[in-house]
Amino acid sequence: MFETMVRPPPLGDGPDWVPLRARGVTSAELEAMAPGSGLAGVLDVLDPAALSGYDLVSFVGASERQASWTAARQLAAVAELAHRRPTLRVEVCGPEERSATGRVSRFAALEVAAELRISRRAAEGRIDLALSLERLVGTSEALTTGALDLSKARAMATATRDLPDAAAAAVESRVLPRAPEQVLGGFKESLARAVLRVDPAAAKERHRRAVADRKVELVPLADGMAGIWALLRADHAVALLEGITALAHKAKGPEDSRTLDQRRADVLADFGGDLLERPDLPRRHGRRAASAGHRRDHDAAGP
User: Fold this and answer.
1) Looking at the domain assignment, is residue 273 inside a domain?
2) Bridge partners of residue 226, in order along the sequence
3) Domain count, the chain
4) Rounded CA gap, 130 and 80, in Å?
5) Model confidence over 274-286: pLDDT tens digits?
6) Is residue 156 within 8 Å of 174, Cβ to Cβ?
7) Does any domain span residue 179?
8) What pTM did the predictor assign?
């Protein structure tokens, strides 16, 4: 237990903290406590400011398990609401063939969105996850017990979306035993390997759909800035970045104080300006596309 001081005390512990055992529970017991109403009651009466650094770690872990349990309970309620709002038409989420919510009335998403103060799109995603977890029994149980958090449950639902039930269960059996000890990135890598091994055809279909969703978007930002976000095939994205990086290295002069990131950004901006100067660009409303204040004097706007 933490109170035995197996590890050195962390900085910040002082004489005012009281061990958990003085409150009728030890750190080891808190760490082993299953989430639910009992754990909620214990967490409610504990004051984090009065706990030692060791006990705080136990408190944080217990709170995370309780949050997973609460998310599982909410998703079960969302799934029940979706079942009570059926429709003969496909109304929720799109493309519909990808979604578990394809036969749920749009009013279910509107109700969830209004209650949670979230967008309709976010509510549709919540419904989709809730219905997906109904067939992912192992994942649902792991979320309820706190062995998985919501981000991992969502990753499981996404990775197995195109799989038949038996294949999805096979993926669960492969990845769930190690999932509690993995960070989200490692868990997603395990999922990708499991899906490829269980159903290679589904992996190819997921890639085909992902490629079909490729796009470039402008993202407005604060302070007169904007971002360019591109969804590309992985090999194309690597080639693009390597090309921009090569030109950025070439652009560096002896007195150039710009960072590599700044030179990359300037290379991309110059590329856009060069494109706008081409005489063969299509016309819109009788006029060629024009750059809105594009300039090459990058140093005038910053380092």
Assistant:
1) yes
2) 220
3) 2
4) 9
5) 888 888 878 665 5
6) no
7) yes
8) 0.70
